[in-house]
Amino acid sequence: MVSTFLTYENVNRNYKASLDRVKSDAATSREAQYYQENIGKVKTVDEFVDDYRLYSYAMKAYGLEDMTYASAFMKKVLNSDLTDDNSFANKLADQKYRDFAAAFKFSSNDAPIVQTSNQIDGVIDSYQDEIDKTNEETAAANAYYKSAISEVKTVDDLLDNSGLRDYALKAYGVDSPYWSKDFLTKVLTSDVDDPASFVNQLTTADRRNYQAMAKAFNFNASGALDSGVAAQTADQTADTMFAYTSTVPGRTTPALATLNKEYYETKIGTITSVDELVNDSRMFDYVRNAYGLQDVTLRSTLKNILTSDLSDPANYATTMGGAKYEKVAAAFNFDTDGAIKGTDGAQTASQLTETSAGYLIGYDDTQQQTDDDLYDYYRRTISTVESVDDLEGTPKLYDFVLSAFGFDGATKKTDIEKALTSELSDPTSFASANKDKRFQALTEAFNFDAEGNMEAPNLAQSQANLQQIAKDYVVRKTRFGNDDEKEKATEEASYYTKTMQTITNRDDFLADTRLTDIVLEAYGLDPKDVSKDFLKQVMTSDLSDPDSFANQQTDHRFVEIASMFNFTEDGGIAAKTPGVQDEHGRLTTEYLYLQESLEDETGAGSVGAQLALYFQRMFPSVNTAYDILGDKALLEVFRTAYQLPTEMSSMDIDKQSALVEKYMDFEELQDPEELQKFITRFAAMYDLQNDTSSNSVVSLFSNSSSSISADTLLSIAQLRNS
User: Fold this and answer.
1) Phi then psi for 273, rounded to 5 degrees?
2) CA distances (Å), 498 to each of 69, 491, 582, in order?
3) Cβ(97)–Cβ(89) below 8 Å
4) Which of 575, 596, 626 is the last residue of a domain?
5) pTM to 2 decimals?
6) For a FRET experiment, which of 84, 106, 365, 670 has its CA 20 to 30 Å from that of 334?
């Protein structure tokens, strides 16, 4: 009789060849082909269970063949929400049920969500980018205007220069796509002081704007400039730039801060009384922002502060505002009557430097708070959106999105709708075909289907697979670790789940060593043993080709890794595939079916060898003694290896656990050499204790006739869920 170990070794020596032999079996091949061709057609649990060939194939793959008859029970398993600790599958002690449910998407379809956290951050970042773009454009427009206006000699020079013309029109609030050169010429050559002039005779609602524009330039009636007169004086140019910068961007910009600083520093030397300062709105706002005074601060309040006598303990600044007001008073040289005291003017050079430094720090505090409040609003409110209609029906939210991608209120709503419902993998879709790339960016930021309803995001990795990698990584890194290692593992898993949502192509994934290391370690592989080039060949393999690089590896984990991702042949992200099982689930099911078939075939000649193969396959996922006690086949291997009686299963569950831990070092057995030593020991003990000609496999690989007491199984289940 061939020994248990020799039978096991004959199969295990070239495990891939053994599997390939089973795979080539005609009956096995037919079942695999049927599964491949039909699993994609299934849409419901009932359809799956009613197709016996599909259902029984999958049940065998996950070691649940003996439960095939219990279709009602298995439907509950398949319908279990694995994210819910109290779901049906999660309350079962046997991990096989959870693995079975996880292989399908009946209840664990990637959850539809209008935006992931990364997409939300992306929209906010886009909004901030638009702010930065506005700041840059405003500064550039100001620089151009300041430089070019000095070259203008006639009204035609101004109106024929689109950059200058548009700047001036916007500055004075008369911007219109329907402007008339003749009309504007009459406005700009009007004498504002003459009641009968063209501009003063206008009856339009924006008459005041045209009057302000006419007053800002010095063209004579012929459209030219009088001798020695410029198109604008320095003050007129400064006023025009202030008008533009304070209104056109629609927000407080660094360019506006620069203009205000220039204005203040030029003007402060001319101030002769506190009233002149507080009654100049720009200077008043400058001081208020420089010292962080509230927006509601009154001119009279600032006047009282600036005229405080700090040598008098009962002065206004000290009694009404303490150190904050005292700092403002000390920065100026006003007497209690509002006049300037001393000969240094309203401010000395050092006082002015302090004030300007404070202004440049605090000028946009109110704007920043407004932005932060808007970001908070967006984060809170976007989670309530479930459709394009919901988004469009929330004006503040919709306007924020438009602004984030550089659109304005004039953008056709129908175009926005077309973009949001576009499929980017379709080159003919509205967003893909549009030359305006803003539409594509908008599409990528949301998860709406063709009907405008939210759907699961299309990521480089499905949400389920992403979470599985993170979970497996943490388990492997913490199963025998200390608290510091657990904290580090959790941090890395968090990095993985967050960063993978930003990955848009395979090259970016492979370039991030931190990501690839997490994936490899989640599968029990040492990153030091897997080169970048090797992993790239794995990730670029065509898994449907048996001769591809990944499929030629003896270690099937590389196929599993490659199938975990949704990269296309050219490295992009593939469109979501319909059906109840993705490629990873299907390939895993097919591989497990081959392993089960090989073990069954081996068990026909040697139950001990079948047990050894099963133990070798399952042990990497064993974390505690309860994993051994909850699996009859694993328990039999343990009990046989250490010559323990079957009666041990009647012991108190805690005592059984202590017994397993006494004999087995789980961490040590993660070493392949140590695991082989253990299997060798088991094989020898099995041959000593059993008649190897008998076949008791049914009792070991079924859920009936168990040697584990019902009380033990219940205790394990309770411990698992406690």
Assistant:
1) -150, 160
2) 42, 11, 22
3) yes
4) 575
5) 0.70
6) 365
